[in-house]
Structure formats: structure tokens, C-alpha cells
Request: fold
Amino acid sequence: MIRKAVNETHSALTHFTQKCRTLNHLKELHCQLLKLYLPETPSAIAPLLLFVVNSGNPSFFNYSRIVFQNLDYQSTFLYNTMIRGYMQSDLPIPAVLCYKDMLRDKLIVNNYTFPPLIKACSMILNEFGQRGFSVHAHLLKLGLQHDRFIVASLIEFYSLNHEMDRAHMLFDEIPNRDVVMWTTMIDGYGKIGEVGKARLLFEEMPERNVISWSAMMAAYSRASDFKEVLCLYRRMEEDGLMPNESVLVSVLTACAHLGALAQGFWVHSFAKHYNYESNPILATALVDMYSKCGRMKSASSVFEVITYKDIGAWNAIISGFAMNGDAVKSVQLFNRMIASGNRPNETTFVSLLSACTHAEMVDVGLSLFSRMGSVYGVEPRFEHRACVVDLLARAGKLEDAEKFIEENMGGIEKGDANVWGALLGACRVYGNVEVGDRIWRKLSNMKVADHGTCVLAYNIYKEADRDIEAKCVRKLIEEMRIKKQPGCSVIEVNGIAEKSLASDLLHPK
Reply:
């Protein structure tokens, strides 16, 4: 009788769902079920909920939640359907609560319950980190730990939680691993900086898809090994795989850092051909690449055609003009951004303050800093205060810079090498031995001097004919065996970025 009713319900649904396009149509369908089947067979509601979840329509799912919450009859299938529906609607916490209700109702969970449930736990790691461990313990108790879909979800959970040892243990227990499992492991190791382990897995993969290549490139990009990103991209091309937007973003990031303009041009033309340029993340990466390569006209052209300019796009173009010495344009773009309704963030102000520093626009920079919190609700951080110190120091306002450090940064002791270097460098430029001597003595007493600050202090004393102090600094450099990081340069030859270190005799060319 029940099977017959369910079959009849499926037939009715097939008929009605062909016309079910609006919420009113769904309600009509629900009424038909209430009249025909539900009084004798409550389980006949299951196909309706399944249809709603598979439809992907938010208004349908909201209606189904009300229906589900008012049912007198519950089943494992209904709960599984709703957990999956919550996940597809990006509602992980209700999905977990639905699972708790399922246990409260003493219903039997099965292998279909756990994959969406574990994914829900992955999404709420920051808020309820222990929930996923409880779910794992429960499925072990039920003996479901060998289901490959459940294991794949657990691998993703532990990878996102940066517990790669546990993820690898689960990975090793699965004999037939699919490309998704391999890629999840590679991405997990990449996110915790274990690029070597990620590469070993990548090379062991029996087959790779574009997402696998993307995960490996992203790992190298996070590790700032941009040359390897481009090498991998060339290998992927040789394998005949078509890159997706994620791959192109990684490649553009590498081009930006290496100054590989020719490769960046090629990626841009490829993106245009396949209409990837409409992707806002990729378009922002193009703006950043052109900016770092000094092609602000191209960067502006890409920026202006972005339909929806988010804060990332605005920051990219503002930063681009700032790093290329056009502080006035950066400030103008900032005003345009505010007028468009976008709110600035910490990155916006770092770019603006840096631009004002190099253009010696002291009043504009100080005004922007003072308005950060009061007008735009952005709390100044250490890097913003460091920019103000640099702004004042480069303009020769050394006492003001020193006072700012004392009053706004907790004194010279709370600074870092960049702040000390900016102040000492300005002391040397303006010949202010008094402030330079005061800063150096504090640094030497704190024993935090590095090669850069030592050299600056030595030059300040030497140029002021204070040979005794200069010799003391020189002796300290020798005693500490401080070495300067060698300078490096990158040049693009035939589409390949070549990196050379100063005094490097090992490079083959």
C-alpha cells in the first residue's frame, strides 16, 4: 500500500513539476498531495521535499522548511534530504541542528547523512570547531568509516582544519582514490605551507584535472615561488589542459611579482578570447599585474570596464598609481571610490599613505590618517602608523616622527626594522645626527639592530666625522656577523623570467 502510494506520488510529481515554476505552483502541488495521499501515507511528502531541494530555488526551500517543521511524520530520508537542502542553501548551522534533531528522534542515520553533514562542519570550523570531531566519532561508532564519500568529506574537513596528519591517515586507508581526494590533499598541504609534500602527491597522481593544477600553482604562489608557478603552467599547457579562471589568476599573480609582462599580455588575450575578463577576481589580477609592470594605461583600461568594482579592484588601481608615483591620481581614485558607495579598508589606506609619503604630500597623508577611524571606521594598525613615520621622516620632520612613535606606537621599542630604518635613513639624508644618535642608542641597547640599521648608523656617524661611534658600530657588525641580504633582479627573456642575485656566479647565464 505504501509503495503504491509513493509510486503514485512520483507520477503526480512528474506531472506537476513540469509546470512548477513559482511558489504558488509549489503550494498547489502540496495541496494536491494533501488531498490525495498524505492522510493515509505521510511518507508521500518525501518526493516533494526531494524535488524542492533539487530545484535550487531559495523560495521553494524556505517553504519546504516550514512544511518539514510541521510534519507529524519524520524519517531518515526526510532528515537527509533537509540536511542536504540546508547545505545547498549555505546554511551549515541549521544542517547541524537538523542532525541533532534526527538523533533526538532516535532515527537511524546512514551513509547518506554524513557527507553533507561533514561539509556543514567544515563551514563552521571557526565557530564550532569540535563539532566535526564529534561527527567523526559517531560515524566510527556506526562502522561507516570505509564509505569513500564519507572519507572524502572527512579529508576535506581535516584539510580545512589544517590537520594534515589526520587527513593523510584517512587518505592512505582508501585504496581507490579519485582525483578529488588527491586535489583536496594537495590543497590542504599548500595552505599550511608544506609545498614539498603537496608536490610529491601531485607527481604521484594517476590523473590530473585543471583543479589539481590550480591547487598546486596556488600552493607555490602562497610560498612566493612564482617562477615555479609559470613552469607548472607551461607543463599544463603541454598536457593539453584548458586553464580556468583560478589558474589564470595564479599565473597573473606570478607575472606581477616577476615582471613577466609578455606572459601577462598572453594571459590577458586568452582571457579576452574566452570572456574570462568579466570575472572580477581575474580582472583585478590583471589590474595588479599591469600596475606592477608599470603599465598604468593598460591597468586603467581593464579597471574601467569592470562592471562591478569591489574593494579589491579599487585597491588594485589605487595601489597601482601609488607604486608608480602618481599620488594625486591615487587620491582622486579614492574620492571616486567613496562617491561610488564603496567603503575603504586597511589595504586602501596603506596604499594612500605610501603614495603621500613618496610624493611628500604630508598634509594630505596626515588628514587621511586622522579620518581613518573617525570618518571611515577603519582602525589604524601598526603598518598605517609606520607609514606616517615614514611620511614625516622623508619630509624632514624628524622630531615630529620621533614624537609620533612615542605617542602613537608605544615608543621605539614597539617598532620594527622598517620603522627604525625609515627614521635613521631620513636622519642621514637631512644630516640630523642628534636624532639619529638617540634612535641608534635605543636600538643597540635593545639588541635588535639588523644589517640595514647598523649600516645607516655607521654612515650617519662617519659623515658627521664621529669616528669613534662609527668604529663601535663597525665592530658590532663584525661581532654579530650580520650579513646583508643580496639584492636580486628579474628579467624576462623569450617569455621566461630569469632571476639573478648580486655577485652570483652560479647562474648558468
Q: What stands out?
A: The chain has 28 helices and two strands. The mean pLDDT is 85. The CA atoms of residues 263 and 495 lie 6 Å apart. Residues 386-483 form one domain.
